[in-house]
Design a protein that fits this description.
The complex is a heterodimer of chains A (110) and B (117).
Chain A lengths: L3 E4 L2 E4 L5 E7 L5 E8 L3 E10 L2 E4 L6 E3 L9 E3 L8 E9 L2 E4 L3 E5 L1
Parallel strand pairs in A: 2-11
Antiparallel strand pairs in A: 1-3, 3-8, 4-5, 4-9, 5-6, 7-8, 9-10, 9-11
Chain B lengths: L3 E4 L2 E5 L4 E7 L6 E7 L6 E7 L4 E4 L2 E6 L4 E6 L8 E9 L9 E4 L3 E6 L1
Parallel strand pairs in B: 2-11
Antiparallel strand pairs in B: 1-3, 3-8, 4-5, 4-9, 6-7, 7-8, 9-10, 9-11
The chains are: A mainly beta (110), B mainly beta (117).
Chain lengths: 110, 117
């Protein structure tokens, strides 16, 4: 199993640009989520999904969209990038209480 | 909602010393408390966890203690080694929150542990 894979690993965006962070898992987990990690803030939940066709907002959803058309994929879209969205993004899937993180995506918005 | 406070934010120790990181949580319904280790540039990985029906759990050099009454739990690392240097996150899981059967997992702010050789 590859686990949770996310792309790209690094990205630089200009303010106002849009982009999609891709995430896929091959463990057949129903629950998937996106976190952002900022210094001193821990891991904050952006959006999550408990199954195909079901998504919901987490703690910091503004400026982000998600969709879940299949069990495997959970892309995160930045609609109009802002410098405040400069962060490290982690996709994760979950089985029970166990979270499996992707390798992270380092995003810089200039 | 749940609030998890983690202290200290940075911790520097000499190799061989012990390190202790403490977390407090606010929601008494939380019943699962994992700890994650994140090495520089890597993903967080689960290193140990404890459930609310247990007061202490050990795994080699690491241990976690839980005080349900006081709503705090701690990570203890003994005989620290340079490879223990990382960011450590605590978390608390409330099975009754979040509106789904998965409950809600809330992370602490993280502790940067540096072990000096």
């Amino acid at each position: 199993n590859a686990g949770v894979t996310q792309t790209p690993k690094f990205q630089v965006l200009k303010t106002g640009q849009s982009m999609t962070l891709q995430c896929a898992q091959d463990m057949n987990h129903e629950y998937m989520s996106w976190y952002r990690q900022d210094p001193g803030m821990g891991l904050r939940l952006i959006h999550y999904s408990v199954g195909a066709g079901i998504t919901d907002q987490g703690e910091v959803p503004n400026g982000y969209n998600v969709s879940r058309s299949t069990t495997e994929d959970f892309p995160l879209r930045l609609l109009s990038a802002a410098p405040s969205q400069t962060s490290v993004y982690f996709c994760a899937s979950r089985s029970g209480n166990t979270i499996y993180f992707g390798e992270g995506s380092w995003l810089t918005v200039v | 909602g749940e609030n998890v406070e983690q202290h200290p934010s940075t911790l520097s120790v000499q190799e061989g010393d012990s390190a202790v990181i403490k977390c407090t949580y606010s929601d008494s319904a939380s019943n699962y408390f994992p700890w994650y280790k994140q090495e520089l540039g890597k993903r967080p990985q689960l290193i140990i966890d404890i459930r609310s029906n247990v007061g202490e759990k050990k795994d080699q050099r690491i241990a976690v203690t839980l005080n349900k009454t006081a709503k705090h739990f701690s990570l203890h690392i003994t005989e620290t080694q340079p490879e223990d240097s990382a960011v450590y996150f605590c978390a608390a899981s409330n099975p009754l929150a979040g509106g789904t059967s998965y409950g809600k997992l809330t992370f602490g702010q993280g502790t940067i542990l540096t072990v000096h050789p």
